[in-house]
Each structure stands twice: as structure tokens, then as C-alpha cells.
Amino acid sequence: MEAWEQELVERVEQLSRESFAPRAERHDREGSFPLENLDELRALGVPGMALPREFGGLGIGLEAHMRIIEAIAYGDASTAVALNMHLLITDFLRFLPPFPRRNEVLADIAQNGATICGPGSIPTGELDNRRSGYTFEEREDVLIVNGKAGFASGADGAKYVFVPGVVPREGREPDFGLCLPTVDTPGVRILRNWDAMGLRGTASHDVVLEDVRVPRDQAIVIPAPVIKTLAQGDGGGIGLTQERVRGALGILAIWLGLAQAAFDQTIAYVKQRHGYLAGPGIGVGPQPTYRSEEPWAQIDIGHMDHWLETGRTVFYDTVRRMGAPFPSQHEFTRVMVRTVYHLRRMSEEVSSTAMRVCGAHAYTRNRPLERIFRDMVGGNVMAWKTTQLLQTLGRGALGMPITITGPAGA
Predict the structure, then answer these.
(1) I need a surface site. Which of 20, 161, 292, 361 has the fewest CB within 10 A?
(2) Distance from C-alpha of 397 to C-alpha of 49, rounded to nearest angstrom
(3) Strand 160-161 vs strand 205-215: parallel, antiparallel, or unpaired?
(4) DSSP conformation letters of 116-127
(5) What pTM, to 2 d.p., does this model score?
(6) What is the DSSP secondary structure assignment for residue 327, as one 8-state letter?
(7) Which pLDDT tens digit goes with each residue over 116-127?
(8) Where do the domains of the chain lie, and which CATH numbers do they carry?
(9) Nearest to 92 by CA among 78, 82, 106, 104
(10) Signed CA dihedral, 266, 269, 270, 275: sign only
């Protein structure tokens, strides 16, 4: 990392620990979006940090980018998730063919710290993807957009909505349409219906568009064969590529930051927890001691330490390997799947072990570990499945076509 990148990472780390973490409990209880966190990150240029300097962004390197996401997640995972999804969409826009609205939005992000949300998954109250998504209807010089989608993380702090959809074509596959309306555009409704077990401050609401009129020059329509070529993975699906990997790696950085927070909370807890029953005891059984002195707790903490530090090593090794081209898309995919699998297992092992070590007191809402655990579970249910990842690894080792998509709600 360059000196200015290291300085920015340190400033974000300080913000996260001193400001974001103390606010996290309130936003979790209220299910409210931490706007003040976003404002403080905006003052540092973080919403536009991944955009190249020619766009007006910071042009931050990949490792510094990931360390910033990890640092934010340590204090408040909801802020990290909302920011990461904004950065993922920003990165996607950068690789699309230029059009006037896209250029305006990217300039606003880079220069003013504007943020964008992206409702791209099945709405929270539905299960069938055929009943969701957006449709673009061409009418002379405008597109009329209708539909509904969910999980628009950061919606309560966003200025823009990333709206992808289909443009029906008679007798052939639909084309791809994209528009970027502001949240106050007539016909755009953010339902503010996010109410989840964890990541409660992400404002991952459903977004409805009803007869939203978009001038043709403010949208883009890409023929179906072209969009397939732009986003094709070598396994026959829409896959990650080395150029479009920041959003996926950002999810892993969030898991890493949360795992570090859970580990630190566990260490602090076992050094203070003394005995089991209330009172000094009646002289029956083993002499009460600090939990940190219990052999079983030491073993479990060793288990956590192993997963946390191997996860960190694997993750940042992969981040650094992104600096040079892979010999093939196949090899890139194998490395990404291995990394995602290891970090996913790290998250599962650290979160469950932290709760086991700290016991009933960790289960109560007067300590941060309960929230951290729920946020880690939220990350685990929303991106990639361990069994699917293992199958992909096996297929890749056998030389079969593979791809990795996401992150996305599941």
C-alpha cells in the first residue's frame, strides 16, 4: 500500500472503533440506517475510493480497499455491507459501455460521495423470481419501467437506484435495460420493509417502480448477445472475472472484520468471567477461577485463532495475487472459490465457537457479541453455500467448466 492509502486505512479504523461501534447497538435495536457513519466516510472520500482518478475518484488499490471494508465491519457490519454493495454497483457501472446518465452518476459518486443502492434479489416476502424484477417498455423517446425487487442495501442513504431489467422482444430473448433514477423520481418507492435477524441497519428494502418514465438518453439498452458476452464466465453463467472482483472480495473482508470483533470480544470476556454460580461458593467442587484459566476455553480459543489467522492469510494472499493476470479464467475461478470457501468456514467456526465459549452472557443483548453473531449469520445466509463451493472445487480439479457468481441473496 502507498503511504496515503495506509493513512486512510488508519483513519477509517479509528472511526470504526471510536464512533461506529458505539452506535451499532442503537441502529441494530431500531433497525435504522447509520446515516452519520456514511457522512463521516463521505468526508474521507470513501464512497468514490475505488473509482480511478480519471473519474475523479481516489483510485485506491485493492488491498487498501479491502482493509477499509474489514475495518468498517469490525465496528458495524451494517455500514460495511451497505457500502460494499454501493462499491460493487459502482464497479459494475465502470465496466459498462458509457452513456450520459452513467457518466453523471459516477461523477457525483466520485466528487460528492453520492451513493447508490441496487435492488437485485427476490423481494423479502416472495420466493419466486418469476414474479419479481423490472421490465422496460419502449415508447417513442422514453422507457416506462415497472417492477419490484429486494435487498437494496443502503437504500435509506442512497441518492440513486441501480435498476436493471428486461426489454421484451417478440420472438427472441429480451434485451438488457438499465436506468439510474434518483430515489425521489416520481414512481420510485422504497418500501422500508427491512426487518431481519441480523444486519438490521443495512436498510436492505424492497424497491418498487410504477410507470417510471426514463428518457431514452438517460438509460441504456444492450442487446442480449452483447450483455452475455460482457458478463460471461467460462462455466456458462454470469461469473466473476478478475476485473470485476472487488464486491465479492468485499463480502469476505466483512466476514474477516466481524470474526476479528468476535475474537476480541471473546478474549475480553474470558479474562473477566469468574466462576459460574452467583456468590463466592460454598466450598463444594472445583475452586472457581477465571474462564481464561479453563483448559476447554483455551482449546476453543485456539480453534478460533487458527481459523481467524488462516482466514486472514488466505484472504490477503488472494488479494495480492489479483495484481497479476491469472493464466486462465478457470484458474482464477478456482482460487476465488477456495478463498470464499475458507473464509466462509472461518466465519462459521469463529461465530459458533465465540458463543460457546462465552455462554449465556453472550446470548443477552447487553453485550456486543450477540449482535456480532447475528450479523455473521446474516452474511452466511446471503452469499454462497459451502456445499456448492465444494462441488465447484471438485469440478475445477477435474478440469470441468466452473464459474462463481455473486454475491447475492440466497
Answers:
(1) 361
(2) 36
(3) unpaired
(4) EE---B--TT--
(5) 0.94
(6) S
(7) 999 989 998 888
(8) 3-115 (1.10.540.10), 129-222 (2.40.110.10), 246-274+292-397 (1.20.140.10)
(9) 106
(10) negative
